[in-house]
Amino acid sequence: MPSYVITGANRGIGIEFVRQLSADPANTVFGLVRNKGNSQDLLALEKERANVRVLEADVTDAPRLRAAADEVAKATGGTLEYLINNAAYVQKERFDYDPVTYGEKGEDAALEADLDQNFRVNVLGVVHTTNAFLPLLRAAAKHTTARVITLSSGVGDVDLTLAMPFAGALPYCASKAAVNMVVAKYAAKFTDENLVFLAISPGLVDTSTSPPTPEELKGAIAFITALHKVYPDWEAKPLTPTQSVTAMLKVIPNVERKDSGAFVSHLGSKKWV
After folding, report:
1. Comparing C-alpha atoms, which of 34, 27, 31, 42 is closest to residue 76?
2. Any catalytic annotation for residue 176?
């Protein structure tokens, strides 16, 4: 019975992973959230499906993550086949700022705060979460291929950044480039074990729960316009969470040890949209 832990499972891509994976009663799916009180849809899914369990832990809280891993271990006999690092911080304010803009506006404190928050959640959070569940994954790897899947973003690809070119969203893009290296480092560490690490971009996905602010809309238009220069045949239409997760679940189970440490798109390639 394959077991999955999905972080950031209360909404968007995270809850869609839980929904699609738990549709197979043979799977045991753990949705990890920061606050159960803000996870009503996920809790409803837990009541509906016997193979769904909701756990509470912040990905930046290492002791609480280890406690969550202990809960999973009790339910699975000490193993875990899949960890999906989905939780992330997506910056809304100052999204269109490039490195120079912070300086021009004299927003040095904002620069430091933005970089700190993006790296704390998107990079450090992945390390803490992976380390917490690593004993369970290694136990599973003695019998099957265990996989750690980390959701990254195409904006973490240096080649795409230069091709667009897109200078905005510095903290977010830098954090995604950094987490790609984190994934590669784990892959380098575990070359002798049946553990696979993969960074995957979900594509450009609409996970919004409210209309964008004027500032957010301005940043989105600038980004989509730049992206369209690289992909002129792209319809410039974001994916739904359902479409994104469906595509990723065609890639994830087929990733083998030879692929460990790679960074790919939801299509299993370097085509980001």
Report:
1. 27
2. yes
